[in-house]
Structure formats: structure tokens, C-alpha cells
Amino acid sequence: MKHYQVRMSGGRIGEGFNGRPPAFEPIALSTNGSTTTSQTGLSCPWPAPSTRVLVGWIDRLVGGGLNADRRGCPHLKDQLHQLLTRPVDTVVCTLLDESPEAPMNSALAHHDPAKLLAGIWLLGELTGAKNRWIVAEGGTPFRWLAEVREGAAQLKLRMIWLRNDYPQSDPSVLLHTLLNRKLRPKRLPTEQGVLLLDAAAAIDIGQIALCNKPVERTPLAFRDHTAGVSRFVTVPTGMKISEALAAAGVATEGKELRQGDLLRDLRIDGNATAGSGELVVHVNPREPARSPDSCVRCGWCVEGCPTRIQPAGLLEAAQRRNPDLADHYGLDSCIECGICTYVCPSHLPILDGIRQIRQQSDELNKQLSGTVEKTG
Ligand code: SF4
Ligand code: SF4
Questions:
Q1: Which of 83, 274, 304, 364 has the highest CB neighbour count under 10 A?
Q2: Are residues 74 and 185 in the same domain?
């Protein structure tokens, strides 16, 4: 896969923060008393791994409120349960952020290094994985991750520094870069022998393990594109995003909300709740609808596509409502990064088309498997 360099702000981590990692402001309700510990000389008294121990820990973590499902940490509960039948050789905690103007993972790792390291160490012991890696962006300011580096060395966790051009943090791209393994979009990394989680999930695991406290709060970063500022907060898990934005003083009237990276165009409304999606929320002025022009066959979408498929062909398949044609053009490999839509000079809604044809294809496959089950 090639790396297509798209940075929405054109910046690197640390720019715009005066070199200091952003602090998190607690919002509403009382905190659960969790504290940031800074000890890196961890001594973890957990027993050697076995399936019985793993089952017990999965129950404990899930019972403690661990419930992450984000781009950098897909279906964590399902990944954990799959460990019971499918061993992994690698645990990866990614600190890569999709939005440099809201570097959530790097900021969390700076503020809670002990829990982060404990979470990764525990998963490494439970799985018996030979590779225990923390993947960070090469350009992260040194002091942000100083304690993580030190603790990682003590716990024999390897730090891997990557250039983080979008969409490097996508699980499929990341596993290909790190291990040359092919992870199909929307499949679990554990199917490729990797347990993948992000900083927030590792810290949640560390909190349950070290402090024996359930996860009751969620970190969020709000990027206000009108004001050009990012606000980092922690809120009670389950709080409405609209309430959290209001409490943080971010104006939303006449604005659109998107979660994750902007290019993915994942729109949410204010009723979405903290903890149920991505940890970065972008607040943008509402854009006027743009009429697309015809495809001029420039090939920019093909050139920009990190998985080297045929975006224009996928749009054509969507317009014809033809899943077979979409398969032919590589639908199965699309990671929905949105680069094709971003570069298209005709403003064609390629990503929307891809999502529509994917949904149609999924429904068709479900119907087919239902028919096979019945006739079988
Ligand atoms: S969204 Fe577009 S650029 Fe990204 S993988 Fe899919 S087809 Fe390629
Ligand atoms: S970038 Fe847009 S105009 Fe160019 S080939 Fe792709 S779909 Fe057509």
C-alpha cells in the first residue's frame, strides 16, 4: 500500500499546542475518583497466562465497562472473545491519531502512562503474544511520551515510531505496514493474529486492573473549526454529545458534527452518546450542497486510493446498484478513507456511493446465506 499524504491541517502533532500536551477538563457529574498515576516502576502481580485466566479477565474487563469500538480499536470485546479460540502473536497499542489538531491518543498516553502500560502489559501476559508493541507517531514531541518510553523499556514493550500520513492509523493499513498481513476492512485484527487497541482502551484496561475501578468516564476532543481550537474533556460515559459540547462552551448552532477523521465524513447528531463511537468530534460550519459535475476520467481518485482499487468504478456500480460490478472494482478492499472524494475535481460523492453499495451488498449476502441455511 502506498501512503497518500493528506493532513487536513497540514500540521504535525504538537503544533498548535505550544509544545505541551493538552490537558483534559472534567465535565459535569462527579468524577469516579480515578487518579492519574505516574509511577513507571510497575510491579504487576498477575499470574501467568492460561485460558482459564483469560476467561476470568475478559469477564472482569467487560464487567468493568470496557466497551471500545473505534477505528483504532475495532470491536474490542469481540477481539477479546476471539482470543479464546484464536491465539495471537502480537498485541498492538496504537497512539496514532487521525487528526493532528486533536491528538487524543498521544495526549492520553502522556496523562496516564501507568494505566496505559499496565493495560498493554496485561494483554501481553494473558495472550502470551511474543510481540508487544506501542506504535507512535515519529513526530510526537519528546516530552509527551517520555514516561511511556521509560515504562515501555522496563516492561519490555517495544516502541515503534511511524510516519503518520493519513490513513496510516487505519487497522488494515497499520497491520500491512507493521506485519505485512492483509486485514480485510471491517474484519477483526485477531483474525490476523493481532490484538489491536488504542490508548483510551489500554488505559481503561489499566484502570480496571490497577485501580479495580469500573470505566465510567470517556475522554473526548472537540475540534471547533470556526474558532480553530480543540477542547479536551472527560465526560460521564453515555452523556449526550450535545450536552458535552454545551458544557465545554462549543457553539453548535448552524454547525455539523462529524466523528473520527473529517475525510471519512461520519456525521453524527447531538443525540449520539459519549463512549459509543470515536473520541474526536469535529464541529464545522454547515456546508452548502454542491452539485457534482460529470466524471472527467482524470484518474486522481485511483492515484490517491491507498488500497489501489477503482473508486470511480465503485461509484458507477453504486449508481447502477450493481454489487457484482462493485466487487469487480474492489469494494472488498475499500477502507472508506474518503481520499477519493477529497481529491475528485468533479465533487462526485464517491464515498457515499461506496457506503450505499456496500450496504446493498451486505444485505444481499445476508439474504443469500439465509437461503443457503434454509435449503441446507
Ligand atoms: S474510500 Fe476511496 S480512496 Fe479510500 S479506500 Fe475506498 S475507494 Fe480507495
Ligand atoms: S477523481 Fe473524480 S473526476 Fe477524476 S476519475 Fe475519479 S471520479 Fe472521475
A1: 274
A2: yes
